Amino acid sequence: ATDFVLPPTLPNTRRVLTVHDLTFERDPASAVPTLLTFLKKVVPDSVKRAHHIVADSHATARDLSELYAVPPQKITVIHSGVQPRFFADGKPAESPINQPFILTVGTMQKRKNHITLVRAFAKLLGMGLAPAPVLAIAGGKGWLYEETLELVEKLNLRSHVHFLGRVSDEALHQLYVAARCHIHPAHYEGF
């Protein structure tokens, strides 16, 4: 099973489970209540039923051991891969944004901490940088994202914050290379 939950199986079936993170345990306020209730029920059960667990990181492996008492020998860490094209090749990138920008990448959801990023960005703009950068947020809408949109409106930043939505791998590469900097302000990540 590649995403937290084992399907029903016959009793003698060997079961390998991938757990990407335990954010719902470490930062429960960042999940909608129905999802939190679901994950708190099915993930511990799936972890218990699994013969072996694949974790994306040593941090997730530690969380599995600490929170669910999974013995370390039952966990194998396999890091997520990065395609070679995401490494800088010295070539200037064609940017989908025609002015200096700060980039953050991730699904718009509460744990990604876009709220703090937007507030910090507003302070940065208040410093009078010339030319003023924009904040580019690449990622689809997740849960509890509305507060970020409301804050952008409240701070009158609509023309300074670009919500790019989900972007292709090619566009993502261009964004990473062309950005002045990349910020990852998440409250918690499994990696």
Name the features.
6 helices, four-stranded parallel sheet, alpha/beta, 7 strands, 191 residues, single chain, elongated, three-stranded parallel sheet
Description:
It is a single chain. Helix content is 34%, strand content 15%. The protein is elongated. Strands 6-5-4-7 form a 4-stranded parallel beta sheet, with helices on one face. Strands 1-2-3 form a 3-stranded parallel beta sheet. With 191 residues, it is α/β, with parallel strands linked by helices.
Q: Which secondary-structure class do the elements indicate?
A: alpha/beta
**How many extended strands?**
7
Number of alpha- plus pi-helical segments = 6
Gyration radius over CA: 20 Å
Instruction: Summarize the amount of helix as a percent range.
Output: 25-40%
Average pLDDT works out at 91
Order of strands in the sheet with most strands: 6-5-4-7
Q: How is the main sheet built? A: 4 strands, parallel
N- to C-terminal separation? 19 Å
β-sheet strand percentage: 5-15%
